[in-house]
Amino acid sequence: GAGVSQSPSNKVTEKGKDVELRCDPISGHTALYWYRQSLGQGLEFLIYFQGNSAPDKSGLPSDRFSAERTGGSVSTLTIQRTQQEDSAVYLCASSLVGWNTEAFFGQGTRLTVV
Amino acid sequence: GENVEQHPSTLSVQEGDSAVIKCTYSDSASNYFPWYKQELGKGPQLIIDIRSNVGEKKDQRIAVTLNKTAKHFSLHITETQPEDSAVYFCAAGGSSNTGKLIFGQGTTLQVKP
To answer: Is the CB of A99 less than 8 angstroms away from the CB of B94?
Structure first.
């Protein structure tokens, strides 16, 4: 596609349920990032994938959060046993070769935990 | 760990005035400093970036300056227009140790007509 695509655009879930958020990066981009943006806040780094290297998971807030990137393309962010504090916009971005190149963002997935 | 501080958190200017947003970063190995603009309900979009081998870069009404010694960089918008109203984020990254981009907390810019 022409840009980074995220789905769903909105997700409402009950506390304690698991959710999966999907990101389709720009074709050919080797780097993929996940960020979390709480209401009125900045972008909190979650995880970074670069090619076939082991992902940088240093930003994941707890072991309820995990992400994978299959075949170096599509990525899924999974949040298990969701809590109300997980409510936020989850943004995905991709870049051509990672560091030092422009990161293109998707529109985000707005997650609401009720 | 890596950290980026951004100031001010909110900025209100009259149309036609200039706006300046400042950021400092902690990782001295960072060598890539992009600025993003985020409009309501949209993902951030790159407006300008600078690399560590350059001290200043301009693109029409937008300019960015970088002081690597002091580890700070700034965004300057001249002749502001109402459509410049948005949230602006600075970021630092490109360290040879890690590829991740660390973002500042954002600045909400309001340009009053």
So the answer is: yes
